[in-house]
Specification:
Structural class: alpha/beta
Number of strands: 22
CATH class of the largest domain: Alpha Beta
Largest sheet: 8 strands, mixed, barrel
CATH architecture of the largest domain: Alpha-Beta Barrel
Strand order of the largest sheet: 13-14-16-17-18-19-20-21
Helix content: 40-55%
Shape: elongated
Distance between the termini: 107 Å
CATH topology of the largest domain: TIM Barrel
């Protein structure tokens, strides 16, 4: 009979079976209320019958307790269960009554577990511990189980009472508390405490197995502007995504931890050598730098990583992490988005950097900074169209210092904002001085990314313009790095629009290094694209750089932007740029940066080189760009042929750009675009034939060398050299013919 269904409302005494069960219920109540088990010998279950109130109490405990109660006979056959047991396990009475209690076992415990339980019940009358129980749905759960042996007045075993307490919630709470104690609440990564513990363990293992480990400190670059501009919710979403990317790239035995803010740490274990650590960190940097889609916002950031290797770097976890932090600071000062290995000189460099910051702040206050101006000219018209303001430091001991000596190492430091504000104010002041002399010269200044995205930048720019009302805002151009613009296209585009509303112009500096998509270029309302000097400088010798410059000029034309070439070092650079359609140049081939006092005199005396004025009246047709590229490529080929370089096997090294008829891009132009545009020009067919002969000669050389036949090496090499020389002469002639054709001629109309 079940206690849950017994009733004493009639006042009748319970029968013997009921009495036994009520006695068992009293035992359960004693266990629950007392908290500790009574000593079984002290429990006299059969001495007296309970009165009505005792019966009700026992029945209430059995029915209403949150713990599951199961009663068996002396042979462990189930006699009754309470409602709590049903809620916990899913079993109802009919499922279990008469069943042996072993039906509930999960078979997760060894045989010795149950033997120990039986022995303890026999000797002490009770057993308490954790036991795994199978639920009706097949799941296995761990419960706190208390089993009591119940004896009658004569000491005979009559029943077992089992009390099941579900400790899963308690365990979950404990686990949550432990997780919070050792993990970051936002990203769920290990925190500093857990990281330190793992580092100490890893150090022991590394020393034992003679393997390396790396402790790394990672700090996000330019996270604060994103957080300040878009709010903490966006910032938190970005941190969560960074954490996810880091976890995905490290191995199972490694640790990624968040130390707070935008600072993370990594523990890389079981490394074969220093190169392996750097390879892992380089992959991490690449992953972090990929764009982040945060709702309606696309953000791009980078990271600076410092790391140290142990056991080479001796010390505990705190020491290693401090060294990694110092190395990270060096990575930031060296340009960000890189990793740096700690060494003994790191401390000295850090101290030196901090001293430099303090000294530059002092230089600003002491009026030691200067602006030099490098003119920009339109090579086609000979007009001076502007100048770029470039900072210098007139150091009292070291003399005149360029930006590489003091500005570039501080690219990630807030002092860049102080420098930027000084440059803006000084440039406007100088423009006002020139304006008073009747001289109007547009000036461009460089703005650091951290300065541009500062929330009050537009307001400060407006105030600066207001202090110089005689300067036209359109004469001020702000140059920002393309890479900065791409970090947060939406934010930067909005700032540019607000500045342009004041009349200020914008230029994308070092264009071509940031890999802008056409969509990004469309969204960036900049007036000017400044072609990075590295492409311009080498375009006379490198066909790939030439192709990049041509492509940027084409993009500028498509999007109605003005291309400006930096790094124009020679007259030849300017001539080729004019051919490509880039008229505005800046560089040593035009003028070196000069003090403000020299600018007016230089402008008055400037005369463009006659080669520029005599150059094409019109840009070279874009459809015929392969002709210009061929001139560069075959100059390279000819130089190589003249050197007559051989490999270890005595074979002539032949320039790759020639390829064969199928691979050569100039050959493709001859067979397609060229024949359709210049097929009626005899010179074109001469060029085509010489080119084919040159390629065939090269192929013959390659085939013979592959067979080991070197009998005609000298003869074929001389023939190839002569044909390349002839080809270059005819290409130059062709270029002049096309360039000098009158605008209304059929030839020019086709071009």
């Amino acid at each position: 009979m079940s206690l849950e269904h017994s009733s004493s409302a009639s006042g009748s005494a319970p029968d013997e079976d009921d009495a036994a069960l009520t006695d068992s219920a009293i035992f359960a109540l004693t266990t629950l209320v007392g908290g500790d088990l009574l000593d079984p010998p002290a429990l006299d279950l059969g001495a007296t019958r309970m009165d009505e109130s005792q019966l009700r109490l026992a029945a209430s405990v059995f029915s209403n307790t949150r713990d599951g109660i199961l009663i068996t006979d002396a042979n462990a056959h189930i006699l009754d269960i309470n409602r709590a047991f049903t809620r916990m396990t899913g079993y109802v009475r009919d499922d279990l009554i008469g069943q042996h209690i072993s039906a509930l076992r999960a078979d997760e415990h060894p045989h010795e577990f149950y033997e120990e339980m039986k022995l303890r019940l026999k000797n002490r009358g009770y057993w308490r511990g954790e036991a795994m129980t199978r639920r009706k749905n097949g799941e296995v759960n761990t419960d706190l189980l208390t089993v009591c042996a119940v004896h009658d007045a004569f000491g005979e075993l009559t029943h077992y009472v089992s009390i099941y307490t579900d400790v899963s919630e308690i365990r979950e709470s404990q686990q949550r508390l432990e997780h919070l104690a050792y993990h970051d609440a936002l990203t769920h990564l290990p925190n500093r405490t857990l990281l330190a513990d793992r580092v100490e363990q890893a150090l022991t293992q590394a020393q034992r197995h003679q393997r390396l480990l790396a402790v790394c400190f990672l700090d996000l670059d330019d996270f604060k502007p994103i957080n300040d501009t878009h709010g903490h919710q966006t910032g938190n979403a970005l941190l969560i995504e960074v954490a996810r990317r880091l976890r995905e790239l490290v191995r199972a035995g490694d640790t990624v931890a968040r130390l707070g803010g935008d600072e993370f740490a990594l523990l890389l274990t079981d490394l074969s050598g220093p190169d392996e650590a750097r390879e892992v960190l380089e992959r991490l940097l690449a992953s972090i730098s990929a764009p982040y889609e945060l709702g309606s916002i696309t953000a791009t950031i980078s990271a600076s990583i410092g790391y140290t290797l142990a056991p080479g770097d001796a010390g505990d976890a705190d020491t290693l992490l401090r060294h990694a932090d110092q190395a990270m600071y060096v990575a930031k000062t060296e340009g960000r988005n890189r990793c740096h290995l700690f060494d003994a000189d790191s401390d000295r460099r850090i101290r030196s950097h901090r001293e430099s910051v303090a000294r530059i702040l002092q230089a600003i206050d002491a009026d030691e900074l200067r602006l030099f101006y490098q003119p920009k000219v339109d090579m086609r018209t000979g007009e001076v169209v502007g100048a770029e303001a470039l900072i210098r430091w007139q150091h009292p001991e070291k003399g005149l210092l360029g930006p590489a000596d003091f500005v570039l190492p501080l690219s990630d430091h807030p002092i860049q904002i102080d420098i930027g504000e000084w440059v803006m104010g000084e440039a406007l002041r100088q423009m006002s001085v020139w304006q008073a002399k009747g001289f109007r010269l547009p000036v461009s200044i460089n703005i650091a990314g951290s300065h541009l995205v500062k929330p009050d930048f537009v307001d400060r720019l407006r105030d600066s313009l207001a202090r110089h009302p005689d300067v036209e805002p359109a004469c001020l151009e702000l140059e920002i790095l393309e890479t900065v613009a791409l970090e947060d296209i939406t934010l930067v585009s909005n700032i540019i629009d607000r500045c342009r509303a004041l009349g200020v112009q914008f230029a994308l500096d070092d264009f071509g290094t940031g890999y802008s998509s056409l969509v990004y270029l469309k969204r960036l309302p900049a007036n000017t694209l400044k072609i990075d000097r590295s492409f311009v400088r080498d375009m006379l010798d490198d066909p790939e750089d030439l192709a990049i410059v041509e492509g940027i000029v084409g993009l500028a034309s498509t999007f109605h932007r003005t291309p400006v070439a930096e790094g124009v070092e020679t007259i030849a650079h300017g001539v080729l740029l004019l051919d490509l359609g880039c008229d505005v140049a800046q560089g040593y081939g035009v003028a070196r940066p000069m003090p403000a006092d020299n600018v007016l005199g230089w402008v008055a005396a400037f005369k463009p080189d006659s080669a520029w004025l005599d150059s094409l009246a019109r840009p070279w047709p874009r459809a015929d760009f392969p002709v210009l590229a061929a001139l560069i490529e075959y100059e390279m080929v000819l130089a190589e042929l003249r050197r007559g370089v051989r490999d270890a096997k005595g074979r002539y090294r032949l320039s790759a750009p020639m390829g064969n008829l199928r691979e050569n891009r100039f050959a493709s132009w001859l067979a397609e675009t060229g024949i359709s545009r210049y097929g009626d020009l005899p010179l074109f067919h001469i060029i085509d034939e010489i080119h084919k002969q040159a390629l065939r000669t090269r192929v013959e050389i390659v085939v013979r060398q592959a067979r080991g036949d070197h009998a005609k090496d000298e003869e074929l090499h001389s023939a190839l050299q002569q044909r390349v020389e002839d080809l270059l002469a005819k290409l130059r002639q062709f270029r002049d013919v096309v360039a000098q054709a009158p605008e209304d001629s059929p030839l020019q109309r086709r071009a």
